[in-house]
Amino acid sequence: MKTCLIVDDSRVIRKVARQILEALSFSCEEAENGQIALEACKNKLPLFILLDWNMPVMNGLEFLQALRQLPDGQNPVVIFCTTENDMSHIQVAIGAGANEYIMKPFDADIVRGKLEQLGVIDP
């Protein structure tokens, strides 16, 4: 089964994302900040990570930079999912190793479309 890590400090966002991703046949784990997510990735890298930017303890950008330094840390597909919508944030995220970027609020069609575009799931 395809694995996903949902990293967001909002329980509501994690719940909505989990429902969407489980409907797409993903096995999901959740983390409420980047530090918890990094520890999870050290134990087992997921296929895909849905990542919030603004979180306490360790933000999404710090997590992404640390993830990409792990052995095989280049492998997970990372989609930033955030309210930060200016071009500079998007460029920083992609420059740090994000594969794609979606805006909150999101829906199943947006998530499915990005995953198809990235080849994570079949169209």
What does this protein look like?
The structure is a single chain. By secondary structure, this protein is α/β, with parallel strands linked by helices. It has a single domain (2-112), classed as Rossmann fold (3-Layer(aba) Sandwich). 41% of the residues lie in helices and 21% in strands. The chain is built from 5 helices and 5 strands, in the order βαβαβαβαβα. It has helices at 11-23, 34-43, 60-67, 87-95, 108-117, and strands spanning 2-7, 26-31, 48-51, 77-82, 100-103. It has a 5-stranded parallel β-sheet, with helices on both faces.
Write out key terms for the chains shown.
single chain; 123 residues; alpha/beta; Rossmann fold; five-stranded parallel beta sheet; 5 strands; 41% helix; 21% strand
